[in-house]
Amino acid sequence: QKEVEQNSGPLSVPEGAIASLNCTYSDRGSQSFFWYRQYSGKSPELIMSIYSNGDKEDGRFTAQLNKASQYVSLLIRDSQPSDSATYLCAVSGGSNYKLTFGKGTLLTVNP
Amino acid sequence: NAGVTQTPKFQVLKTGQSMTLQCAQDMNHNSMYWYRQDPGMGLRLIYYSASEGTTDKGEVPNGYNVSRLNKREFSLRLESAAPSQTSVYFCASSEVGLFEQFFGPGTRLTVL
Questions:
Q1: Do the chains contact at B99 and A45, CB–CB below 8 Å?
Q2: What tens digit of pLDDT does each residue of B16-25 get?
Q3: In angstroms, rounded to a whole number, what is the distance separating the alpha carbons of residues A64 and A52?
Q4: Count of Cβ atoms closer than 10 Å to residue B66 Cβ
Q5: Which residue among A45, A107, B14, B51 is least packed, with the fewest CB closer than 10 Å?
Q6: Is the per-residue pLDDT at A94 higher than 70?
Q7: Chain B contacts of A103, Cβ < 8 Å?
Q8: How far is CA B44 from the centre of its chain?
Q9: C-alpha angle A48-A98-B29 in degrees, rounded to nearest 5
Q10: Which residues pair with B88 in a beta bridge?
Q11: How far apart, in whole angstroms, are the C-alpha atoms of residue B44 and residue B41?
Q12: Which residues of A touch B106 (CB under 8 A)?
């Protein structure tokens, strides 16, 4: 069974710091990797996708993928209190269009 | 565009009652999904529909049925609700060949 593991947190960082969120996955054949942000009481919102090894940057967010280590991470630079949320890692592979989600990491950014 | 919409937003049922959760998307996506989210358990896939006319079981299908009514609509039915089905239910959709899924606002269901 495919597994996606995340530290549950909470991860607490001061405003302006870099927040680092990590995710490991068990299926070596996984091909697509996603980060979702979920505010309390709201639905998951896609913020980053990455498909090849290396870094992908979008504004203050950087996703990093290392397929050999089966590891994907999300860096949030200049963290803001509005970044406080649960971050879900999701992994997919093959042709069945299904995603496997981690349980999420709760991030708190303190003013 | 409304994206993915779900009705109702909240529902309270008694054990043994039935209900249908509705989901619709206006993004012309082929694939649609139903998840439940419970504290400490993350998002778990109940059923999915890769394309109109097809449905398949996910990780936790017991106690649920689905109908892909057309390309836009995908409903989830609880025939005889149980307290273990108290959860937040999310519908999602994605384009064929792409794995990015877009979520609706959710239905918060309580079964007493």
A1: no
A2: 999 999 999 9
A3: 9
A4: 24
A5: B14
A6: no
A7: 40-42
A8: 11
A9: 75
A10: B37, B108
A11: 8
A12: 42-43
In sign, the C-alpha dihedral spanning A41, A71, A47, B43 is: negative
Q: Which residues pair with B89 in a beta bridge?
A: B36, B107
- Sign of the dihedral through C-alpha B112, B69, B49, B29: negative
Position A99, amino acid: L
Q: Which residues share a beta bridge with A37?
A: A45, A87
Q: Model confidence over A1-41: pLDDT tens digits? A: 678 999 878 999 999 999 999 999 998 888 899 999 999 99
Show which of residues 15-54 on chain B sit within 8 Å of chain A, judged by CB atoms. Answer: 31, 33, 40-43, 45, 48, 50
Instruction: Please judge whether B42 and A46 are an interchain contact, meaning their C-beta atoms are less than 8 angstroms apart.
Output: no
Mutate to test the interface with B, among A99, A100, A105, A106 (most CBs of B within 10 A): A99
Residue pair A35/A87 in contact by the 8 Å Cβ criterion: yes
Per CB-CB distance under 8 Å, the chain A contacts of B56 are: 96
pLDDT score at A95: 56
Contact B106 A43 (CB under 8 A): yes
Q: Does residue A10 sit at the B interface (CB-CB below 8 Å)?
A: no
CA distances B56 to A97, B38, B68, Å, are: 11, 21, 11
Residue B24 identity: A
- Chain A interface includes B8 (CB < 8 A): no
Of A34, A44, A98, the CB nearest to B45: A98
The pLDDT tens digits of the residues spanning A81-91 come to 999 999 999 99
